[in-house]
Automatic annotation (TrEMBL):
It comes from Vigna radiata var. radiata. This is WAT1-related protein. The chain crosses the membrane at residues 18-35, 47-66, 78-99, 111-128, 140-160, 184-204, 216-237, 243-268, 280-301, 307-326. It is a multi-pass membrane protein. Keywords: Membrane, Transmembrane, Transmembrane helix. GO terms for cellular component: membrane.
Amino acid sequence: MSNNEVASGMIYVKFRPHLLMLFIQMLLSFLYFLVEASLSKGMNPHVFVTYRHVIGGIAVLPFAYVRERKLWPKLTMTMFIELFFLSLFGTSLTLNMFFASLKYTTPSFDASMTNTISSLTFILAVALRLEVVDVKKPRGVAKVFGTLLSLIGALIMTLYKGHTIQSLRGAPFHVRGNFVHNNWIKGSLLSGASCISWSLWFILQAVIAKKYQAQLSLTVWINCMGAAQSAIFAVIVEHRPRAWLITSTVELCCVFYAGAICGGFVIFIQFWTAEQKGPVFVSMFNPLGTILVAILAYFLFGEQLHTGSLLGVVFVIIGLYLLLWGKESDRDYNSQESSATDVEQRECKTQIKISEQEVPQRNLSQDTN
């Protein structure tokens, strides 16, 4: 194997989490428009969340059984409670509020609100000592400023519109129907509450993923519990049996895409990345989703853009870059800790060997006497 191939392999391994999270944001960006199209057709958001998790669990279950059936840990009551709250904050509660907010807002607005998740996750991770921040070093300061800039960018995109940029003529797709967004405040509150719940989910991901090493099986558990929780909530809120019927191709495509791709593949990759890089790393890629949704909304779906959105995107990109640069110090910190631990272990082994060699010599001297 040549040196170039080795170098390319090392670069790929180093940036694999980054590439996977970028790919995930691309997949999630399409979901915003599919969901709004389904809601405009009359699909109940709580029913949609239930179907999504049912399909997600079914899609991942065969892979989990084949690859991880020998790795399943013992399901204790403590583990069951942890999985219950992980499903509550990560799937049923979060998504029910988030997709319900699309009734009253737009995909671009909801995508911009998710930018606050990285800031909230960073604050919670620091408070729980899951994130290392050394403000005496430039990389530690970069984490703080990157988080603040991302939050400022999200607020600009949310609160400031500015001049309108006309939509692109001849956009190939038009998914929006006769959907009227008539309660912006209610939608904003639902979206904000969803972001808080989402932040808690990223924190729980990093904690539970270390205990439950079978990540495919963990994805199945999350989908199954999330489906049960959402079904109970949907039955309480929606009393019409007709609401559970899928009446259009758009709704069917949305349910299968959200379940198999977003509920299965995306959750599995997020668990793997959270275990490798921590919860803040996973959440700080959400701003890229905002940019991708804005691009799709303009070029593909004919939505209008505003100068405030473009200004917010600039802040988001700068903040994301600073966060990524600051996160590189975590790897250096962990490598220093591991190297220090290895040195201590080698010293202990050396002392044990010396002591073992001294014992026979002492016994020999005593026998001679």
